[in-house]
């Protein structure tokens, strides 16, 4: 046998570089559901179902076109419970000339992979993941010698590189690179939100649901109402659904939150893009086509494209530039444990309850819930970055270390000194009230900053600002905030700080 080609659970596409020169007559594919990958974190059960089912469907599709696939289904009693052990067995059975694999997405497995050739006594060809626009070395070259790494400038490079939303004379479509200022509307129930694309589970998916419930009973979340796509065809259906029904309003309501709507006008495509069921560039091109066809406005399409060729590529670049030390960063010196209600949703803070409950049910919460509710609270409360990062890695169907870690440790916790934002995304309850209707249903009063019923976000916000004066006092983007704080009467400031101290000592009870 020539090549033994390993395809990982988030590489489910025939476009993957490991298959570039593959030949079914000489090569064999290996795929495996192993305990080590399924349990390095407390993965949401919907994520396990999505990945196991999508892997099985992909393996079946490969076999249909003539491939031999050595596929290991999950069982706790399988003798080989790591990818290395599976490879060891298949190498002994097939004696390939070499193993071929596309680079993985996270440091943990990357380190293991680097030792495979020696330990397995077989050459291992690790290829670049060409699904990303910027390779690791390209990003490193862009970052080199820059004093500050700013997503916005990297994004412009990616616009030029892809030609997406660029005019023939090399200018950004509409004369601006970024239409974010237009994308901050509150949603008041109209226009109606379309809801996500839903697929009824087939027999293969139902089988997976049963085994995930049997073998992972302690994992977070529920498999109830599983409706994710698990094939390329259905993921394409999810893309079309987004383009037809949500994209036109994506920009306007990008930052909105609602008590009645889990998904609003978000695409819910990250689970598919991240595991290979959709190609990120093709997704962006499809959105841009809608703009050119007059079916979606520029602020929506530019906002959407920026998330994928800007933020998604940028966070991956930061991850590989700074790992493994990045995961240890804690520049604000946080020490508090993650409150238990992150796992149960059992809190009187209605915004937190709603975001965590949606997460538990869906394996999904949209960006603003992640950033400005659950993330914001962890930032204000001074939670240890490693603990909140573990939570985000566990609870979302789209979670992978390379994208979760910079978003949480960098964007949310500002623990890396500011690669993902020149100031922390800290906000009081006022922001949540402005962008949602949560506060109307809350036992706390968003207008109060101290007193028993005062919204916890308010005092915690000012406590955060006050206790981090050394870090942020000279940040020009925070100047106005410090001036506002310093202008308040001493008694009021003392009362807010006292309330903040009390809240920090009672986090579990809020
Ligand atoms: C604390 C925190 C943790 C996060 N963890 C993850 C994660 O583990 N996996 C993940 O894919 N995204 C993560 N994100 C980014 C973002 O919240 C999700 O990509 C988005 O909510 C997915 O839902 P959607 O597909 O409906 O996105 P949409 O709002 O429709 O956006 C379109 C696409 O843009 C991309 N995107 C948007 N924002 C980001 C971003 N900040 N970083 C990377 N890609 C982005 C995604 O591919 C997404 O599908 C995290 C954000 C925060 C604040
Ligand atoms: S009052 Fe405060 S805790 Fe309650 S929903 Fe509003 S922001 Fe959240």
From TrEMBL:
* SUPFAM superfamilies, per the entry: Cryptochrome/photolyase FAD-binding domain
Q: Which Gene3D superfamilies match?
A: 1.25.40.80, Deoxyribodipyrimidine photolyase-related, DNA Cyclobutane Dipyrimidine Photolyase, subunit A, domain 3, HUPs
Q: Which is one GO molecular function term here?
A: lyase activity
Please provide the record's keywords in A-Z order: Lyase
User: Origin, by domain of life?
Assistant: Bacteria
Q: What single Pfam family name could you report for this chain, choosing any that match? A: DPRP
Name of the protein: Deoxyribodipyrimidine photolyase-related protein
Provide the species name: Tamilnaduibacter salinus
